[in-house]
Design goal:
5 helices; alpha/beta; globular; Rossmann fold
Amino acid sequence: MCGRVLAALYDRGVRRVEEAGLRARRRELLASLPGDVLEIGAGTGLNLEHYPTGVRLVLLEPDPHMRRRLAARLAGLRLSAEIVPGSAEELPFPDSSFDAVVSTLVLCSVADPGRALAETRRVLRPGGRLALIEHVRGEGALAGFQEAIAPPSRLVSSCSPNRRTAEAVRAAGFVLIEQRFVLERAPFWVRPAFSGLAVRDAESPLLE
């Protein structure tokens, strides 16, 4: 789908899902993030209202149409943030730059989620955390349907509904504490989802 069209329709398209519980999950996930925070795939800025005051926020977004809408939303908030163009698979930051990285409904659309997660781990400081909300591959007949529609879905919207994202997070060297849930009012093929915090070090205080 054309980036301009997707950016224009995105907020309207997810409004019912946000109202059905996704907004509350964003708030719960982001409210206590510390220090220097990077959000990858910041989109139109639906997370912005949920960040705590005092964080140093960097918003990475590859699409110029999304970045314009992101900047407009940011201008209406009392929140200081830097918007940076770039790809999750090639983060333009030095090692150990951030205390937290945020990914919400992003890893379904990156070209190489393994590389994106490796880059995320690289830019996190020791004990840093990755905060996630992602839709994932389901089970049984739903999984078969997701596999069948994955190629046209990627072509139309860049979204892969069949990704095993929680497993990929662990394979990238993170320790993940997750909660599975259903994205209410979303199309049935993207309803299985999880929210969670992943840490790059098994000895992190988050796990105690």
